[in-house]
């Protein structure tokens, strides 16, 4: 009752002032008494600059589609740092000013009771509670926690207001958002970057036994905010001494000045052989060659450029890391960019030398800007990508991450190939199993999955090509076709919402195997233990949830088939 009374008094005071002046008031002052300020949003409404001031200093600038009359959903601003004090909220014109009275405070975010319950919410792929996101950022493991940062617009369904969102997990499967970590300011919005653990306390900031986390990000000047319209795009640093709960921007930013107009996306990694830190940076679209640069540092603050190079087909969001070759004592370095193209090479005497041609980590349509975790506890390479290209209409959230993958490097003669498979932890999510098919001969029309329907599961299957006489086999998953042609040795992906896609796939000792991850809004296909990986963001035109086995020919031998259902990771 006290909360309702305070809310009504606040709104009535605002409306009274507006009525007395005869026109909407373009600002509002509130005393911060609760954690959250809730703001009504309607996608497609007129965009507005909303500024927050504390003690006369601008502390937030938000581009937002305000609509208190017919909001699609509510977003929230965490006001914890100003608790007990006044803040001033200002908008540029009267169109949005009339909605300032609809903003209200609360202990919990508006709409919390509906979080993760929306009908288009993916069950086991990470999504934000509210707003748009894109690139994964700052992926690091420390003190028992996996940290996933991401490019986040906390205040709308479309791209804008780039901020580092933050989620943590103890098992790599179940994620909890902790609130946005690094916010825009007068130097720019916060574009992509990386994070590391200051294991040796090089910065001298460690408190107790908790290692300092260090984040490197791009300050993107002139990216839509009035606040930073005259700022240049530079590379900056922030740090956390409480395992990611709070972040402090380095007082002497930037750590790397502007080299080209939109240079961006710093990726930091430890080089054990050189006992130094290495940073990969995209020099930007303004750079005529779309080149990348490498930098070295001993103290995490001063960075010296050591190399520039290009990778055919690649731009932005570099990732660069050492990786052991399976079954050997060799270690190579893998370099990749946003377009999932990679090269394997050697990093010696501060120079990266590729020794393979460019290859693809993923052959699907929706795997972009992938990054790997720093400091993974088992020293394995775990990657997450943004499944770009598919929106979630009429939802309060937009976009999704891929399921975590483990990358392994294999040597074949003088060549090296990286293969990706879902991390083994996925088995912990299985709730029920269906089918137990082994060594079964099938022909056209046979459909062992005919009685199954579902929208979040893992399908495992293997076929014996040597014993088969048919044309091919595959599955139709809620309208999405995954099909292998025995004659052409081609794996194809097809759906009414996309162009047909075809990739080469040679049987492995006469076998072709699939692990298919199906979820609300996506399919990730892994063939022959990661020989081919393909991510697709997918919402069926007509939803059936059916799984149909496709058999073409008089004899196709299925070695095994199983489907394991997955419940929602958000049901805690």
Kindly describe this structure.
A hairpin with a 7-residue loop joins strand 14 (234-240) and strand 15 (248-249). The chain has 572 residues and is mainly beta. Helix content is 4%, strand content 46%. The protein has 3 domains: 2-106, no CATH class; 130-422, Glycosyl hydrolase domain, family 43 (Tachylectin-2, Chain A), CATH 2.115.10.20; 429-566, Jelly Rolls (Sandwich), CATH 2.60.120.560. The protein contains 2 helices and 40 strands. Strands 30-40-31-36-37-38 form a 6-stranded antiparallel sheet, with no helix packed on it. Strands 11-10-9-8-27 form a 5-stranded mixed sheet, with no helix packed on it.
Low-confidence stretches: 1-24
Mean pLDDT equals 94
Number of strands: 40
**What does the radius of gyration come to?**
26 Å
Strand order of the largest sheet: 30-40-31-36-37-38
Through-space gap between termini:
30 Å
In CATH's first tier, which class of the largest domain applies?
Mainly Beta
Sheet bearing the most strands, described? 6 strands, antiparallel
Shape: globular
Helix share, percent: under 10%
Beta content comes to over 45%
Q: Structural class of the secondary structure composition? A: mainly beta
SS summary, helix count? 2
Tell me the count of domains: 3
CATH arch. level architecture of the largest domain: 5 Propeller
């Amino acid at each position: 009752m006290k909360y309702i009374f305070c809310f009504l008094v606040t709104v009535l005071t605002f409306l009274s002032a507006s009525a007395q002046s005869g026109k909407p008031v373009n600002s509002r002052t509130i005393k911060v008494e609760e954690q959250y300020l809730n703001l009504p949003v309607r996608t497609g409404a007129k965009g507005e600059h909303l500024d927050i001031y504390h003690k006369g200093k601008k502390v937030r600038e938000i581009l937002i589609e305000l609509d208190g009359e017919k909001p699609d959903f509510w977003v929230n601003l965490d006001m914890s740092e100003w608790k007990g004090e006044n803040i001033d909220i200002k908008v540029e014109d009267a169109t949005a000013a009339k909605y300032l009275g609809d903003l209200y405070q609360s202990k919990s975010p508006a709409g919390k009771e509906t979080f993760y319950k929306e009908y288009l919410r993916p069950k086991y792929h990470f999504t934000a509670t509210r707003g748009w996101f894109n690139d994964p950022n700052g992926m690091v493991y420390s003190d028992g926690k996996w940290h996933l940062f991401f490019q986040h617009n906390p205040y709308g369904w479309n791209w804008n207001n780039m901020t580092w969102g933050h989620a943590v997990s103890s098992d790599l499967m179940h994620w909890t958002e902790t609130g946005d970590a690094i916010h825009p300011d007068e130097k720019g919005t916060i574009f992509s970057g990386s994070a590391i653990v200051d294991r040796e306390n090089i910065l001298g900031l460690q408190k107790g036994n908790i290692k300092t986390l260090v984040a490197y990000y791009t300050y993107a000047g002139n990216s839509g905010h009035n606040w930073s319209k005259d700022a240049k795009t530079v590379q900056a640093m922030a740090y956390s001494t409480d395992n990611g709960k709070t972040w402090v921007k380095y007082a002497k930013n930037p750590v790397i000045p502007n080299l080209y107009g939109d240079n961006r996306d710093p990726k930091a990694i430890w080089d054990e052989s050189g006992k130094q830190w290495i940073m990969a940076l995209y020099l930007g679209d303004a750079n005529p060659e779309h080149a990348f640069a490498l930098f070295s540092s001993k103290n995490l603050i001063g960075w010296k450029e050591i190399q520039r190079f290009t990778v055919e087909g690649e731009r932005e969001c570099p990732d660069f890391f050492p990786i052991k070759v399976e079954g050997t004592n060799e270690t190579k370095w893998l370099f990749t960019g946003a377009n999932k193209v990679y090269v394997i090479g050697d990093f010696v005497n501060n120079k990266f030398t590729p020794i393979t041609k460019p290859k693809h980590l993923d052959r699907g349509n929706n795997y972009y800007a992938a990054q790997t975790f720093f400091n993974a506890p088992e020293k394995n390479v775990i990657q997450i990508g943004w499944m770009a290209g598919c929106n979630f209409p009429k939802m309060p959230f937009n976009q999704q991450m891929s399921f975590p993958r483990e990358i392994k490097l294999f040597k074949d003669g003088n060549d090296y190939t990286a293969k990706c498979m879902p991390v083994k932890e996925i088995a912990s999510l299985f709730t029920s199993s269906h089918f137990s098919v082994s060594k079964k001969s099938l022909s056209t029309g046979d459909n062992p999955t005919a009685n199954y329907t579902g929208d979040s599961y893992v399908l495992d299957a293997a076929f014996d090509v040597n014993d088969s006489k048919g044309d091919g086999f595959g599955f139709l998953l809620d309208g999405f076709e995954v099909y292998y042609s025995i004659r052409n040795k081609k794996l194809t992906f097809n759906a009414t919402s996309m162009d047909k896609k075809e990739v080469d796939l040679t049987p492995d000792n006469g076998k072709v195997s699939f692990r298919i991850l199906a979820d609300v809004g996506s399919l990730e296909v892994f063939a022959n233990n990661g020989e081919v990986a393909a991510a697709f963001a997918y919402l069926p035109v007509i939803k059936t949830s059916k799984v149909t086995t496709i058999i073409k020919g008089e004899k196709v031998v299925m070695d095994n088939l199983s489907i394991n259902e997955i419940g929602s990771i958000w049901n805690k």
